[in-house]
Amino acid sequence: MKYLRDVATVKLAEEKCSGCGTCVEVCPHNVFIIKNRRASIVDRDRCMECGACMMNCPSGALFVDKGVGCAAALINSMITGGEPTCGCGGNDSKDNCC
Amino acid sequence: MAELKFRTELIRNKAAGMSSECGCSTSPAAEDEKPRWITGTVSAGEGLVHRVSTDLTNTDLWEHIRCRISAFRENYTVKPGFYAVGEPDKTSEVLVSANYKLSFDHLRKELKGMNAWILVLDTKGINVWCAAGKGTFGTEELVRRIALARLHEVVDHRNIIVPQLGAPGVSAHKVRRAAGFKVLYGPVYAKDITAYVAAGRKATPEMRAVRFTTTDRLVLTPMEINPAMKKYYPWYAVAILVFFGLQPTGIMFKGAVVGGLPFLGLGLISVFAGGFLTPLLLPWVPSRSFAVKGWLVGLISVVLTSNIFRLFEPSNGLLLFFVYLFFPMASSYIALQFTGSTTFTGMSGVKKELKISVPVYILSAAASLILLVFYKTGHWGTL
Q1: B225 and B166 in one domain?
Q2: Which of residues 7-66 of B touch A (CB under 8 A)?
Q3: All structural domains of chain A with their residue ranges
């Protein structure tokens, strides 16, 4: 299953990539492969912007505008003007996403 | 400070271990201190830690069901800290988990026959993936817990196995620099952990991919239906009954029930379409947009119930128009909420959907209201 086309914000600065393969390892949706000793994005539309690749890229070659893909959280942030945070759990919210 | 806290934790662990050995009956307060799934103590470096059972009891399973259907899960936690499985020693693996008991239980039940350490992070009772998204399952908390557990004294090696879905919160290279431990990303699913360890901490590509099977989606649906029924449906039901009961002479009970009942039924149908059918049939419903998927499923459900099962037989064009405008739209809105539960929707996509769908929802709701008002005034005119 894939979500909307051409919306994912994942960016790879190939010149910074050392080819360590950590992004391939952490990505839950097989967005990357290692080709010619460098990472390459195979299918951007598979990306869910979780940010695992960016967090774990030791050379800082990856960028993702990471955030919750949750309508309830985003609607809440539209209304309150705050950051979209997943309201699940905790004692402050009864919303149940993720 | 950290050391002091660790010491007191050890002492408490020790006390709990002794009380279980003496076989004396435990008061409810002691029960609270030491959960049933703790089966003794194991020495770890200079201290003692609790050993956890790898068997789930019926109580555990019943609690898991409650997590899936209600707000029970909002306070279903394990005390963060350091635990043991089997008879671990200085060479045993260290596995990291979250303090949501459902996550913790999924891990421990897969560790039968294994000797390992479990480091439970304080994720405020949230599962690994969501907590990693928020950063509570993160570099800082992991480094802190490694220090609190004095992991460098407990094990000789310098590896810790972190679930792959913890990666959005953890920077492996930063953990190594700050704590001296190398983060090895384990499989996505706990059921693969033994195979992963047996293969020399190697995950196959299958172990690295997140799935979203029909069963996965099915178990999530109660928590789609439950909030919709609690948050929206009561208001909707009151509004519908008042609307149909409203006469120039006051509110008539008979009018409310006879006129309102089919609409209460259709309301339930749209909750069912958006909160159950759409998630369940997700891969087979056309369009990538959840709003469109929900609208389509809602439309078909309304057509089926009103035209084929004759639940609603329209006597009035305005009401018919209202039914086809309002209910598929309600289903669409509810289906859009499911983006928060999937394993593949990202923020940019949801933002794009909202940009288009929120104005459409507002306009349709306004148009629906106008239709109802026209119907009512027309109806009164003919009385």
Answers
A1: no
A2: none
A3: 11-63, 68-98
Split into its structural domains, chain B has a count of: 2
| Residues of B (147-166) whose Cβ lies below 8 Å from A | 164-165
- B chain contacts of residue A52, beta-carbon cutoff 8 Å: 132, 164, 167-168
Establish if B289 touches chain A: CB-CB under 8 angstroms.
yes
Q: B257 and B150 share a domain?
A: no
The predicted pLDDT at position B380 comes to 81
Q: Considering only CB atoms, which chain A residues are within 8 Å of B336?
A: 71
- Residue B311 is classified by DSSP as S
- Taking the CA atoms of residue A68, residue B298, residue B333 and residue A44 in that order, the dihedral angle to the nearest 10 degrees is 30
Task: Identify the pLDDT of residue B65.
Answer: 94
What is the dotted CATH code of the domain comprising A11-63? Answer: 3.30.70.20
- Which structural domain range is residue B74 located in? 2-210
Residue B168 and residue B250 share a domain: no
- Given an 8 Å threshold on Cβ–Cβ distance, is A97 in contact with B337? yes
ipTM rounded to 2 decimals: 0.88
Asked if A2 and B185 come within 8 Å (Cβ–Cβ), the reply is: no
Single residue among B192, B210, B228 that ends a domain in this structure: B210
- Hey, what's the torsion of the CAs at B125, B131, B137, B139, to 10 degrees? -160
For residue B60, give the 3-state DSSP assignment.
helix
A95 to A90, B135, B298, B341, B343: CA distances (angstroms): 10, 19, 23, 11, 18
Which domain-ending residue is among B156, B190, B210? B210
How far off is chain B from A98, nearest CA to CA, in Å? Answer: 4
> 3-state DSSP call for residue B120?
strand
Average the pLDDT over B336-347 and give the result: 94
**Structure confidence at residue B91 (pLDDT):** 96
